[in-house]
Amino acid sequence: MPTDHTAILSQMSLPQKVGVLLMAPLVGDRLDELLGRFYCGSLLNWGKSGFGETRCATPEEMRALHNRAQDVSLKHRNMPVWLHGRPGEFAGMTEGVWLREAAETKTDPREVEARARTLGARWRELGMHNMPEPTVNVPLFETCIFRKLAISTDPEVVATYASAFVRGVSAARCGTMAQHFPAHGAAPTDSHNSYPVVDLPEGPLWANHMMPYQRCFDAGCTTICTAHLACPALDPDPQHMATTSKPILVDALRGRMHFTGIAIADAMEMKGFQKNGPIPAMAVDAVNAGCDSLCMVDVKNVEPVFTSLLHAAEQQRIPVSRLDEAALRHLKFMDWLGLFQDPFAS
Questions:
Q1: What span, in angstroms and rounded, lies between the C-alpha atoms of 63 and 122?
Q2: What is residue 200's three-state secondary structure?
Q3: What's the rounded Cα separation, in Å, for the pair 85 and 196?
Q4: Helix, strand, coil % (nearest 5) of the chain?
Q5: Backbone φ, ψ for residue 207 (5° rounding)
Q6: What average pLDDT does range 55-60 have in this prediction?
Q7: Which terminus of the chain has a smaller tally of CB atoms within 10 A, N or C?
Q8: 220 vs 3, 91, 278, 299, CA distance in Å?
């Protein structure tokens, strides 16, 4: 029986709609708070390393933790929660350098697609739902973000292998996240510790950097990660980074590129995100610009961000229509994953 997304949305309170926007670190002893007080729509698990979330020593421990998160979410939110991250050590995957290696060795893209399908199945067996790959950046600089994960400096090669990866993972009913939108490979610095500018004219930007994203979207990519950078060719306002830009997240991403999935703001603790103000205030700008999910790597930021968003929604500085739009995208994603039928990993 099809899931009635509109009916579920109509039963959600304003705090629950606000909470859907939050992607918080999965901290095992704080699940009741994260899901019962802040109603987080997604949780972030980076495996044995990362951001202070509960560590798991075995795949069985991770699966049990994720199933416990689903129990708590059903109890407090009356719906499942989706899980994002990179527990690659439990799925036979090291950092995503294998896509670069496949491109360098001219591996048949069909083989890449088959391996990606296996990885997607392993992700789901662990109770995970969205993979933070592929890195679609076409690097112009050695100093750009995640340079070691770049597939190639050739846009066509990036598009070929990234889209093969998306098709494979999607075939296992696991989500993918193309990053970092738009064109972080064309930025000379890393937004973790700076505020980069993509200084390219519109023609080369679309032909060489946006094209691989489009191929991933056409292949079924479910989420994107926004970049905390300026891109004057898409939005000339110097106060707008991609994460807070309607011309980029609505006009380009939704309009011209027809992306229908979830737009995830890259981690708000990064220096680039805080260029124009503190995290709680910038979170409001990001949601109004079109972000459907806000990634946090420090659990201490969950409460101030939730409070800021809720106050903005109560004061109608975030329209209810914007909250509903974001919530519906989450509901449709969870439906595609099959979580309303069975949220538990076995």
A1: 11
A2: coil
A3: 25
A4: 50, 10, 40
A5: -70, -40
A6: 84
A7: N
A8: 20, 22, 34, 31
Which residues have C-beta within 8 Å of that of residue 66, sequence separation ≥ 6? 45, 83, 126, 127, 128, 345
- pLDDT for res 323: 98
**What average pLDDT does the chain have?**
92
Domain range 17-337, its CATH number among 3.40.50.1460, 3.40.50.80, 3.20.20.300, 3.90.249.10: 3.20.20.300
Least confident of 19-23, 56-60, 260-264, 312-316: 56-60
**How many of the other CB atoms lie within 10 Å of CB of 135?**
28
Residue located via tokens 């949780």: 43
The enclosing H or E element of 168 equals helix 155-171
What per-residue confidence (pLDDT) applies to 189? 86
Q: What is the pLDDT of residue 53?
A: 58
* 179 sits in which H/E element: strand 175-181
What six digits make up the tokens of 167?
């098709």
Query: Please, what sign has the CA dihedral across residues 151, 159, 242, 288?
Result: negative
> Among 93, 148, 109, 173, which residue's Cα sits nearest to residue 337?
173
Confidence label for 328 from pLDDT (cuts 50, 70 and 90) = very high
- The answer, yes or no, to whether residue 58 has pLDDT greater than 90, is no
* Alpha carbon distance 313, 198 (integer Å): 32
**Sign of the torsion formed by the C-alpha atoms of 64, 65, 66 and 70:** positive
Angle formed by the axes of helices 109-125 and 155-171, nearest 10° = 40
Residue 226's nearest CA partner among 175, 271, 180, 157 is 180
Q: Domain-by-domain residue ranges, the chain? A: 17-337
What is the number of other CB atoms lying within 10 angstroms of the CB of residue 156? Answer: 13
Encoded tokens for 201: 């004219």
Residue 51, classed as helix, strand or coil, is coil
Q: Which residues contact 312 (CB under 8 A, 6 or more apart)?
A: 284, 287, 318
Place of tokens 């950078």: 229
Where is average pLDDT lowest: 45-49, 123-127, 136-140, 271-275? 45-49
